[in-house]
């Protein structure tokens, strides 16, 4: 669904839309404004009208992607009662934002991610691997969402096999791995899917995991070894509950020179995500080098 602003001559000069991600969740903030008509409050008016329609629907939440090249959409989210829940780094091909950026962005574009509660949430327990828990806590510190953290324990009835689906956006060179069921082979199966998407040209891969499954806190501990950093936490993502999204990025050297944060909390969250991306990339490089040195050593011993 969407709303448009039209001049007296019938020219469309602004649009704000919402796209269904799941039956209970939409992505809103698909906004465009003609540069000639910016700074007139048009986007805010369209947002209000879209929000009214969403509130009358069966939607329980809406998410969106405020840009990092200016603070206006970040501010709109917070004023609407929402929260920044993370960031999609290197999300898509470079773009030019007329009137905002100085021509085409130098590298792949990155976006903040927000979540706004449309209907009251039901209580739920999160089981988050230790490496990602500080980010989720950072998000929840600024919300009154009814979420608690479960006590980590090994789950006896975890299935042997992980069930997942993959997809690839070849234009943006972005892959997605949607884990539907966590099994004992989680790390192996996700690693295989990652490798397949990388071979197909993906420069960034998102891995979506069921955050209300107690098995995630235990079996997800090894996901950092695959180079997967925190991305976002999405409450009430689907009938399965909340989703934890991780991200693998081919090139961790992300240009942040054009980024602006609305407040220190957003800067701290996204800065922490960037730091984890670099840390995991460095750790992976060190592991590969150690493996290479061991291989060379054993080759010398065999000769």
TrEMBL record:
<dbReference type="InterPro" id="IPR000182">
    <property type="entry name" value="GNAT_dom"/>
</dbReference>
<feature type="domain" description="N-acetyltransferase">
    <location>
        <begin position="1"/>
        <end position="122"/>
    </location>
</feature>
<dbReference type="InterPro" id="IPR016181">
    <property type="entry name" value="Acyl_CoA_acyltransferase"/>
</dbReference>
<protein>
    <submittedName>
        <fullName>Unannotated protein</fullName>
    </submittedName>
</protein>
<dbReference type="GO" id="GO:0016747">
    <property type="term" value="F:acyltransferase activity, transferring groups other than amino-acyl groups"/>
</dbReference>
């Amino acid at each position: 669904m969407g709303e448009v602003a039209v001049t007296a001559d019938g020219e469309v000069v602004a649009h704000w839309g919402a796209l269904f991600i799941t039956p209970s969740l939409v992505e809103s903030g698909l906004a465009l404004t003609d540069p000639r008509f910016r700074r007139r409050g048009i986007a805010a008016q369209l947002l209000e009208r879209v929000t009214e329609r969403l509130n009358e629907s069966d939607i329980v939440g809406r998410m969106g992607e405020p840009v990092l090249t200016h603070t206006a959409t970040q501010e709109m989210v917070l004023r609407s009662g929402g929260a920044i829940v993370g960031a999609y780094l290197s999300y898509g091909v470079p773009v030019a934002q007329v009137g905002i950026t100085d021509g085409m962005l130098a590298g792949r574009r990155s976006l903040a991610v927000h979540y706004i509660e449309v209907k009251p949430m039901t209580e739920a327990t999160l089981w988050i691997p230790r490496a990602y828990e500080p980010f989720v806590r950072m998000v929840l510190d600024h919300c009154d969402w009814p979420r608690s953290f479960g006590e980590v324990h090994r789950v006896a009835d975890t299935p042997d096999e992980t069930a997942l689906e993959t997809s690839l956006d070849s234009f943006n060179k972005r892959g997605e791995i949607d884990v539907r069921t966590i099994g004992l082979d989680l790390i192996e199966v996700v690693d295989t899917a990652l490798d397949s998407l990388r071979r197909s040209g993906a420069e960034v891969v998102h891995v979506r995991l069921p955050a209300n499954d107690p098995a995630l806190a235990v079996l997800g501990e090894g996901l950092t070894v695959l180079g997967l950093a925190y991305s976002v936490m999405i409450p009430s993502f689907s009938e399965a509950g909340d989703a934890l999204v991780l991200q693998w990025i081919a090139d961790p050297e992300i240009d942040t020179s054009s980024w602006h944060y609305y407040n220190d909390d957003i800067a701290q969250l996204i800065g922490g995500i960037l730091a984890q991306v670099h840390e995991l990339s460095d750790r992976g490089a060190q592991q590969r080098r150690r493996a290479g040195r061991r291989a060379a050593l054993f080759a010398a011993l065999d000769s």
